[in-house]
Automatic annotation (TrEMBL):
This is Carnitine dehydratase. SUPFAM superfamilies: CoA-transferase family III (CaiB/BaiF). InterPro entries: CoA-transferase_III, CoA-Trfase_fam_III, CoA-Trfase_III_dom3_sf, CoA-Trfase_III_dom_1_sf. One of its GO terms (molecular function) is catalytic activity. PANTHER family: ALPHA-METHYLACYL-COA RACEMASE, SUCCINYL-COA--D-CITRAMALATE COA-TRANSFERASE. Pfam families: CoA_transf_3 (PF02515). It comes from Virgibacillus necropolis.
């Protein structure tokens, strides 16, 4: 596996940090969750449960080990510093200043291990007036200007169903940053500090929106962007049986195929029509789509290249042949919880693939193992 012999000390909780270290663990890194002894990661206690831990915790913390240390005690700090000596990476998601108050900040740790890569994932980064401000996904989306644009024209902002800032703005940039720092370390022999702000990450995702504003100072309105409600060719339509069909016919060849399939060739020249014309076009297409069931439309479009898809529920998604073929839902057998399904890895490597080897550890399951290892090293 590509990250074999890479040791990661994971002090993070909940979603952004654990998702980052999950990706590292999937590809062979030895990820050690360093948890507070009594409660551990808060996500352990969420509902619903799979055995003693939440299903969310099992998903995000598979392939990892758990060590309990009280980092507020001198003994716990000393043990952690010993672990840092043999570590390649430390990942934490506390507010700026917390690790410094514990005496375990990057400046301290790099004295123990100059080759250490230290990644801090926070809402707003280590600098700036918001650095110590609390927040969650919805707050970072709000400050980035993205939540303002989400939803239908004339409606209020719509909260997305998954955590864009946590995963896209935090976990993924953190993973890339860690891997870049490890790659650079091969040349310099030195580690470095990886500063990840979820707000920064969300802003960097606005590539189809923000450059237009920066160039022409044209403010976008909710529901009017080309790929967020402004185009009839990129929209969702309700079928006769109250199901939904998504259409992404952005290119002329796909749009042409779509228009011919709904028997309205007169719509073909209107692909890039002005906004008001797009609203009329969407209304007419909706009228047409509502006359047939989802199954009827899928039959019509099955042999065409028009970028038309059914809007699936989870029940349907996990049985979809493409999802099955890509191994995105994995079935595991566990001694305690029995058979369980897990989300697969999205990164497919030909020679050194990642995979799910174990479910999440029990709280402190590997503490004795690492205490013994450190005792041997001391001798």
């Amino acid at each position: 596996m590509p990250l074999k012999n890479t040791r990661v000390l994971d002090l993070t909780r909940l979603l952004p940090g654990p998702y980052c270290t999950m990706l590292l663990a999937d590809f062979g890194a030895e990820v050690i969750k360093v948890e507070e002894p009594k409660m551990g990661d808060y996500a352990r206690h969420y509902e619903p449960k799979l055995g003693d831990n939440s299903v969310l915790f099992h998903s995000l913390n598979r392939n990892k080990k758990s060590v309990c240390l009280n980092l507020k005690s001198e003994e716990g700090k000393a043990d952690f510093l010993e672990m840092v000596e043999k570590a390649d990476v430390v990942v934490e998601s506390f507010r700026p200043g917390v690790m410094e108050r514990l005496g375990l900040d990057y400046e301290k740790l790099k004295q123990v291990n100059p080759a250490l890569v230290y990644c801090a994932i926070t809402g707003y980064g280590q600098t700036g007036p918001y650095a110590n401000k609390p927040g969650h996904d919805i707050n970072y989306l709000s400050y980035a200007g993205l939540l303002h644009l989400m939803g239908e024209k004339g409606g209020k902002p719509v909260i997305p169903a998954t955590q864009i800032a946590d995963i896209g703005g935090g976990a993924l940039p953190a993973t890339v940053g860690i891997l870049l720092a490890l790659l650079e370390r091969k040349n310099s022999g030195e580690g470095q500090f990886v500063d990840i702000s979820m707000l920064d990450g969300v802003i960097s995702w606005l590539q189809t929106l923000l450059p237009n504003y920066l160039s022409h100072h044209t403010e976008s309105n909710r529901g009017e962007q080309m790929l967020a409600g402004g185009l009839a060719a990129y929209a969702v339509y309700e079928t006769k049986d109250a199901r939904f069909l998504s259409v992404g016919a952005l290119e002329p060849k796909f749009w042409g195929a779509f228009c011919l399939a709904i028997e309205r060739s007169d719509f073909i020249p209107l692909l890039q029509a002005p906004l008001q014309e797009q609203y009329r076009l969407k209304y007419e297409i909706q009228t047409i789509i509502s006359k047939k069931t989802l199954a009827d439309w899928l039959t019509i479009f099955s042999s065409l290249e028009a970028c038309v898809s059914p809007v699936l529920s989870f029940d349907e998604m996990i049985e979809d042949p493409q999802v099955i073929a890509r191994g995105m839902i994995q079935t595991m057998k566990h001694n305690t919880v029995g058979e369980t399904k897990q989300v697969g890895t999205p990164i497919k490597l030909s020679r050194t693939p990642g995979g799910i080897r174990t479910l999440a550890p029990k709280l402190g399951e590997h503490t004795a193992e690492f205490m013994e290892e450190m005792e041997i090293l001391r001798k």
